[in-house]
Specification:
By secondary structure, the chain is of the alpha+beta class. The chain has helices at 11-16, 36-45, 65-72, 119-128, 152-155, 157-160, 164-169, 200-212, 220-229, 266-275; strands spanning 6-7, 20-24, 27-32, 48-51, 56-61, 85-91, 97-105, 110-114, 135-138, 142-148, 175-178, 181-184, 193-199, 216-217, 279-286, 297-301, 307-319, 324-332, 341-345, 348-355. The protein is globular. The strands form four sheets. It has a six-stranded mixed β-sheet with strand order 11-12-13-10-4-14.
Length: 364
């Protein structure tokens, strides 16, 4: 691997476990530990653990922190009580998504967890728009793990210690702080579980203890098929700075009230909403055998039997749970829900069924 790639505190542990390491937005990360399929099923059936220390943790503090984030984010952080979090986006002036992120309201200030792929753009954007008494602190000394699956909390009980009952009682998108552990009921798999931010120096022991408790190590491959089954977007594929949240099934993250909250991108989104959103994100399921892949063109069958292009798959994979090809696509908003759709694969038009994500029901 190139020496230019960053390594998480767990890189040596991944290699010792036989992980296939790959470049991922400037980081050297585990793709799988021998079987992506087994890792996927382990998370769906019991529990798995992901190293997500490549994510960027940013703390926002100061007397004007709330006003600052009210100006920058689509979600209304002023409605959050300490211990609550919300999912939303950072937009450019044209309404495009710079990044999707979770904002956590702490006793003092906020914590943002943003994507590795957009770290530089995010930090530059935050700094460029910083006004008033606001401090922006990247917490590069922290690591992050995601513990996911129907038995995730049960298997992590010993490691969680006295915090276990309180964490289990929290609803989705709530969090607690237990000493130097930041424990959140969030995730990217559609399963129950939690994510923990902790000092990097404690990550190796935490990883080993959780593995010993029966949680399976899982890599980027399983993480992608799990999130796709759950209908969750991947930045850079399902949305980017040229795509608005209204076109990426993220309209629900936009808090339009109060009407005088002039967040960046609001005017562009309002105009788009008034004019009519030109495209929409939908789920697709492939009829018969095969795998859907991002980049495939989507076609609509006309009255004369001819196929006309109406969109593109942004994400696609074979679903290990459903045992069929699934994908997210952005298609023209004018396409009727009952329209016959297809993708072109190896010179043939293959029928796809339109559906509303998620492809599997959320487990909790």
């Amino acid at each position: 691997m190139s020496s230019a790639l960053k390594r998480t505190p767990l890189a040596a542990a991944h290699e010792a476990a036989g992980a296939k390491m790959v470049p991922f937005f400037g980081w050297e990360m585990p793709l799988h530990y021998g079987s992506q399929l087994e890792e996927h099923h382990a998370v769906r059936s019991a529990g798995g653990i992901f190293d997500v220390s490549h994510m960027t943790v940013v703390d926002i503090s100061g007397p004007d922190a709330t006003a600052f984030l009210q100006r920058l984010l689509t979600q209304d952080v002023a409605t959050l009580a300490p211990g609550q979090a919300s999912y939303g986006a950072l937009l450019n002036e044209a309404g495009g998504v710079i990044d999707d992120l979770i904002a956590y309201r702490r006793a003092e200030g906020y914590r943002l967890i943003v994507n590795a792929a957009t770290r530089d753009e995010d930090l530059a954007w935050l700094e460029a728009h910083r006004t008033g008494a606001v401090e922006i602190t990247e917490r590069a000394e922290l690591a992050m793990l995601a513990v996911q699956g129907p038995q995730a909390l049960e298997r992590a009980t010993a490691w969680l210690g006295a915090a276990a009952p309180a964490l289990a009682a929290l609803p989705a998108f709530a969090f607690m702080e237990d000493g130097d552990r930041f424990l959140a009921r969030t995730g990217y798999t559609g399963e129950d579980g939690f994510e923990v931010v902790l000092p990097a120096a404690e990550a190796v022991d935490a990883w080993a203890t959780l593995l010993a408790a029966g949680l399976a190590p899982a890599g980027l491959g399983a993480r992608d098929t799990l999130r796709l089954e759950a209908g969750m977007n991947l930045y850079g594929q399902d949305m980017d700075q040229a795509v608005s949240p209204l076109e990426a099934n993220m309209g629900w993250t936009v808090a339009w009230a109060p009407e005088d909250r002039a967040f960046l991108g609001r005017e562009a989104l309002a105009a788009l909403k008034a004019e009519g959103v030109p495209t929409r994100q939908v789920g697709l399921r492939l009829e018969g055998k095969g795998v859907l892949r991002g980049g495939l063109e989507v076609f609509q069958e006309g009255p004369d039997g001819a196929w006309a292009p109406v969109g593109t798959l942004t994400s696609g994979a074979f679903s290990p749970t459903l045992k069929e090809g699934i994908g997210l696509a952005r298609i023209k908003a004018t396409v009727p829900k009952a329209a016959m759709l297809a993708v072109e694969m190896r010179g043939q038009y293959r029928r796809v069924l339109r559906c509303r994500p998620p492809f599997i029901k959320k487990r909790s």
